[in-house]
Write a structure and sequence with these properties.
Distance between the termini: 31 Å
Helix content: 25-40%
Mean pLDDT: 93
Largest sheet: 6 strands, parallel
Radius of gyration: 24 Å
Strand content: 15-25%
Structural class: alpha/beta
Order of helices and strands: HHEEHEEEHEHEHHEHEHEHEHEE
Strand order of the largest sheet: 6-11-10-9-8-7
Number of helices: 11
Number of strands: 13
């Protein structure tokens, strides 16, 4: 679960961006004492992610707004399902609406796409994991959404593991050192708690990489036949990760090759925001009964 203070930091930044000096429309048009109820409604099926984000957004705008979570993170839903309800000061609900929708639509889109990949590899040993190809500033929420969709997380940042890719290896061996020796020397400089992953794009690189101490070998842009050969060659001496050329049409074949992990950048860089809306009903107790649908397409 994403830390509450991290959620608050992201939401506060988004609220400040959206209403740096208040909500001019709400403060002009909506009476100060008006209250309202609203429902977060799905316009299409999907997987929900962002319950705590919704609660945090409305609470930070006005702590008097009550939020009832109807759906939990990871729940699958159909079009027309109510995912959450809010009730309280109308100005606050309308001010928080767009930020809450932007974030929960994004997170639910990532969770929904992730679930499609996870379903596609069901029955295999492969784990679907994300990458660092995330929206700047939203990595924590998008990683949470991947987990809500049934996926796993790769390293969070450059600070979390040693991951040598093609450009790293080119620089590392530029002086003429062989790959295994260069990796062993680099491993000596690593903290004892750090994990070493090395990317290869040819099968003849696998043995030197293993000799250099790689704990995970990433087979990048290998064909399915080459993946099978790589898995057989590694033979359990390291975790085998497949990357590159992964989409919903290819992921099942990649998983069937016997890899342990499949990293998919599309989970976060290509996920479409899900169509969710906030349907607001003015409190009849204030002498009003009009219904306003403030859906995902509003400005």
């Amino acid at each position: 679960m994403t830390e509450p203070r991290e959620i608050e930091r992201i939401v506060a930044m988004a609220l400040d961006e959206d209403a740096p000096w208040g909500d001019l429309t709400g403060e002009t048009l909506i009476p100060e004492g008006e209250t309202a109820t609203a429902e977060l409604v799905a316009r299409e099926p999907g997987v929900f992610s962002g319950a705590r984000v919704v609660e945090t957004t409305f609470r930070l705008v006005d702590p008097r707004i009550a939020v009832e979570a109807v759906a939990a993170d990871g729940d699958r839903f159909a079009a027309g399902d109510v995912l959450a309800r809010v009730q309280g000061p109308a100005r606050g609900i309308l001010r928080a609406e767009r930020v809450a929708l932007n974030l929960v639509q994004r997170m639910s889109g990532v969770a929904t796409l992730t679930a499609r990949y996870v379903d596609a590899v069901a029955g295999t040993r492969a784990r679907i994991v994300d990458t660092r190809k995330t929206t700047p500033g939203l990595r924590s929420l998008e990683r949470q959404a991947v987990r809500d969709g049934g996926g796993r997380n790769h390293r969070r940042s450059l600070s979390d593991a040693v991951m040598a890719k093609d450009n790293h290896l080119a620089v590392l061996t530029a002086g003429g050192a062989d790959l295994a020796t260069a990796l062993r020397e680099a491993r000596e400089r690593m903290p004892h708690t750090a994990h070493l992953e090395v990317e290869v794009d040819r099968i003849d690189q696998i043995e030197p990489v293993l000799a250099g101490g790689a704990q995970t070998v990433m087979l990048d842009n290998f064909t399915v036949d080459a993946l099978r050969a790589g898995v057989e060659l590694i033979a359990g001496r390291a975790i085998v990760e497949a990357s590159g050329g992964v989409n919903l049409d290819t992921v099942a074949g990649i998983a069937a090759a016997g890899v342990d992990v499949i990293s998919v950048g599309a989970l976060t860089h290509s996920a479409r925001a899900l169509d969710l809306g906030l349907d607001v009903v003015i409190d009849a107790g204030a002498g009003r009964s009009a219904t306003d649908a403030a859906d995902a397409g509003s400005a």
